[in-house]
């Protein structure tokens, strides 16, 4: 299961991103991000919109966003939301700063055992917080890489790795394959080892946790990573790896 400090870590991840965004110039906000078709302002707008959706779905004062009414796929729906509300980068930054704090407060206050509606599947608040951490981390890369700004990897990636590993069975089923036992031996940013999955599995993914998380976020092709695979299902697991959410 996810670590119980996920709410603190989500807040810390957002704070790290906020420290980067606070230093952007007007030209920076208009810079193309690594998310195709979106500027850096668009990426932050997307994060603001989805944080507002977290507060709405967790709290009693608003209705969850009806994603299916906005597009044929989740990506289409997210794109439509961004296209409808593009604006000034500084104003979007202010909107996100409010939205991210409201969302964390709502998640902290929610019953951790009661699933809430989120996009395609109900999620318990700690798992929803984990997905929000993973999304903020991945989009931080979309922002910082094009700008040439450093964004250090931290121990918070353990949540992202947990999410990717925990959803491998779903990824196998989505590909029309039976789930296969896989274990991971990952080297954390501080050099410690993270062991995930079935310890008796003969299929293994090993290497840097940062690469594992980037592959799962579709920010790094498996072949360009430093990850190693072994066993009958290791290569397939790495190919299918995604940081999906589970309930």
Give an overview of the whole structure.
The chain has 247 residues and is an alpha+beta fold. It folds into two domains: 142 residues, Four Helix Bundle (Hemerythrin (Met), subunit A) (Up-down Bundle); 84 residues, SCP2 sterol-binding domain (Nonspecific Lipid-transfer Protein, Chain A), CATH 3.30.1050. 51% of the residues lie in helices and 7% in strands. A four-stranded mixed sheet has the order 2-1-3-4.
How are the SSEs ordered, and which strands pair?
Elements: H1 6-21, H2 26-29, H3 40-58, H4 74-85, H5 89-109, H6 125-147, H7 157-166, H8 168-174, E1 183-187, E2 193-197, E3 204-208, H9 209-216, E4 228-230, H10 234-240
Parallel strand pairs: 1-3
Antiparallel strand pairs: 1-2, 3-4
GO molecular function, one term: isomerase activity
Domain Mycothiol-dependent maleylpyruvate isomerase metal-binding: 10-143
Keywords: Isomerase
Share of helix, binned: 40-55%
CATH level-4 homologous superfamily of the largest domain: dinb family like domain
**CATH domain fold name of the largest domain:** Four Helix Bundle (Hemerythrin (Met), subunit A)
Rg estimate, integer Å: 18 Å
Q: How many DSSP E strands? A: 4
So what's the overall shape? globular
Tell me what the CATH architecture of the largest domain is.
Up-down Bundle
CATH class of the largest domain: Mainly Alpha
Integer average pLDDT: 92
Strand order of the largest sheet: 2-1-3-4
Q: Tell me the number of helical segments per DSSP (H or I, 4 or more residues long).
A: 10
Indicate how many domains the architecture comprises. Answer: 2
Q: What is the CA–CA distance across the termini? A: 11 Å
Main sheet summary: 4 strands, mixed
Approximate strand percentage: 5-15%
Question: Which ranges are low-confidence, i.e. pLDDT below 50, for 5 or more consecutive residues?
Answer: none
Keywords: Isomerase
Organism: Actinoplanes subglobosus
GO molecular function: isomerase activity
Domain Mycothiol-dependent maleylpyruvate isomerase metal-binding: 10-143
